[in-house]
Amino acid sequence: MNTLKQYANFVSHDKIPAMYTLDPTWLPFSNLMLKHIYNVLLICNDYDRFLLEEDGRVEEELYLEYTQLGLNNPPKFTHTSTAEEALNLLSQRSFDLVVTMLDLGTDSVEQLATTIKKSNPQMPVIALSPSSSHKRNKMIKGSDCKDIDYFFYWQGDPTIFLAMIKLVEDRMNLDHDTQEADVQLIILVEDSVRFYSSYLPMMYTTLIQQNRSAILEALNNWGKTLRMRGRPKIALARTYEEAQELYSKYQHNILGIITDMSYLKEGDQDKYAGLSLTKTVHAKDPEIPILIQSSDNTAQEMAEDAGAYFLWKNNSALLFELNKFMTKHYGFGPFIFRDPDTMEEIARAETMRDLQRVLPKVPTKSFAFHSRRNDFSRWLRAQSLYAIAARIKDLKIPANGDEKVVQQQMTEIIRNYRKERTKGVIAQFSRNNYDETLFFSRIGGGSLGGKGRGLAFIDMVLRAAKLPEKYPDVYLSIPRTVVVTTDQFTQFLEENDLNDIASGDIPDDTLLKIFLSKPLSNELVLNLSEIIQVIHQPICVRSSSLLEDSHFQPFAGVYETCMLPNQGSDEARLQELCDAVRAVWASTFFRSAKEYLKATEHMLEDEKMAVIIQQVIGSDHGPYWYPNISGVARSLNYYPLGGEKPEDGVGMLSFGFGKSVVDNGSALRFSPTHPKRPAQFLGGNQTSSQNTFYALNMKSGYHPLEEGGLENLELLNFRESWAYPDAIRYIASTYDLASGMLSESVRTEGEKVITFNGILKYDAFPLAAIVRDVLQLGTEAMGKPVEIEFAVNLNRAAPKMREFSLLQIRPIAAGNEESDVSISNHERESAAIHSHVVMGNGKIDHVQDIIYLKIDQFTASSMKGMAKELDKLNAAMVIAEKDYVLVVAGRLGSCDPWLGIPVTWSQISRSKVIVETGLQGFQVEPSQGTHFFQNMTSLGCLYLTINPAYRSGSMRYEKLKTLQIVSETEHFIHARSEKPLTIKVNGFDGEGVVLVD
Q1: 218 pLDDT band (50/70/90 cuts)?
Q2: Which residues contact 417 (CB under 8 A, 6 or more apart)?
Q3: With contact defined as beta carbons under 8 Å apart, do 326 and 332 qualify?
Q4: H/E run at residue 913
Q5: pTM of the model
């Protein structure tokens, strides 16, 4: 089955949450406890009602009990005082349970129960008595009233209602839940109403409290809620036959049995029925812990001889001892490692994380003792960790086998389980649980922001579609990620009174200094300190604002990204991480961000910033850290070459960090659908290769106030990497000057050239296939074309696999969707600018201004000066509130001034049409991977590319010169037409024109 079909099956699976499929610790809790008691009909006289509601405050106390135990939806009670009223209410409204007092005056409880069952056989009916000496008790006990499901004594304790409701709910869900999952069952065999009315409230309270403790292992609040559904259940049997039936039916789910000694067997009171049950059960399963409780203290020896534990019913601490037994023998509470000779405690584990850490350190003798008794699987089942409990139970120590090997195997099973369950799941960050197994966590309760949402979503989709399984030799994932959510940003601004300052007109460097001087909250600092205890390789701190990577305005590259070597003392690493978080927050209010917000018609108050803290993909090569490959890929190619289709997609690859692609646009272009076709370099002219790359200096630290210190990357000559052949293996080829031939070996003598031949041509790593699959999945999941950023590490130390890591996914911003743009032959012939390479679709008929390059004044060395000129010209247009057409040479927005004019978006913010032209001796293909490109297209800006020297499109300067000149600079002319220009772009046919008359 292909990945798209797998994903389609996943999303259409009866609306089951993604976590059901992805997290084994949740499997299949979302489908448990489907039947609940929500509405209870209480039948009693007014005095009993007063006792229950006023003196006992049952509903209030039950609500408090539910709340304190972390349970949801406490039942609602409806009161009536007569059988007639009760039957009338039952016919009109929906109820889940009927509770009736035994004394209904002249009405017969037995007759009422029979009538209810006739109309609704599934309706549970419970009869409640205020005391064990009530006269009606003996009358009913002597009768054969099968229509009353349970009798209970009410002695003022509201937890009896909790026990009654949970007992009924357990019975309603028992068959389904034990089949759906390995849900455990405790069988209580007791025919005394007085005793089980005391036992059950305590037992349920113990179970629920244990469950609350166990869900600490859940990854987030939703996971905790689901895990509550997986607690062990209790079934009440009152005869030997009922107990035997329960055991036979659920024997693979039995957590334990608590039985009386004397009760009915074959219709007669059997003084030793509990002993018979114990022997029958232990004959088949001697590991099941059985507790026999009896009023006869002399029965203790018989019980223990049969392998059972014993509890005397007349013990003044009966309930305490019962609770103690359940905690010790049912795996409740911490797992305690004991010395098998002395039974002294050696170590304990509160959670599975503790167990993973403690297990390798305990003596093998202790491990073997617990393993042979199945203590590990029993403890895990009690934590509702059924999937791993089953795997652990199957792990046996062979006869004469190496116990130490099994101990190591169990440790590895637990580690892998904890690691795999986190993938595709957003965990709530907790200092107590954060470790190397958690991949995506959130600090705070606010939004993840755009980038954070995209990462969490694509990780979930990858797991659901089982894409990593398609590439078993590749570690395909997202980087280890922690998101500091937007509420932390808001708290930081409010606690430090920064709102007015941030919204003011303050230079970026001043604003950064102010933010860096303010303290983070103590709680956040403690959380960040825990992160650096787990992550020891470089850290990337990235923006993830609310508006970032949206469907309409992606805000790509508008905010800061900070790279930290993460070296040195814990204090220094923590300080650098705190500074980076503050720096990203400060970038929310930098000039370029404010300009972009204005252009997209957002208010500054609309924007809130989350921060992504990620492990940096790559390896150390001498003093530097960098990945072998960074890239950007789009599922829609705006500029397909011959034989390609737009839907084939396009990718850009660079060596080192991806700044080369997203800022400079300097990269190798390839088709994910046709990777073996000749690739094109986008670094100047189409035959040149990348000769510089970005790397992180591991010895430089992080200094955000220094020049270039925010991002903290260094631009190196490609020759710097030649000393590390493993870094450029499959990436570079060697040019033999003598023969003029390329060799794919990087260890031979000669000039090294970046070609990516080993990857694209010889399939040394399935990059193109992975990119193609991820683009398809992303497009299907988001419902529109997508762009991804990724990194590849080919140098992970064995036994680790080579790594493809998704850094970001965002929808390609929607443009003008007009479909009726037609261009006539007359318009083609008379156009001042005519292009066959366009992006966007639509007509513009309000623009009169055009700013165009003086071709005769162009030199590539003047690009930085041109940026300043455009900034000045654009400022005048901003004041005049006029849009314009901009004509430039090279790749606009490139950070490399030899490829194009290095403007920021705010320096050309009023341009509605951009025309990029190649000149004789200066041919640069537009890069679709840059952040600048993404932002301009998202604003509805139309792009036209022409290369007259290659007969691709045309520009008639004589027509432009007929326009009235408004102003001019050294390299540009600002002209204006008397009438609006005619601008048409048909993105479907790939054609555009600009007419000036």
Answers
A1: low
A2: 24, 387, 388, 391
A3: yes
A4: strand 911-917
A5: 0.68
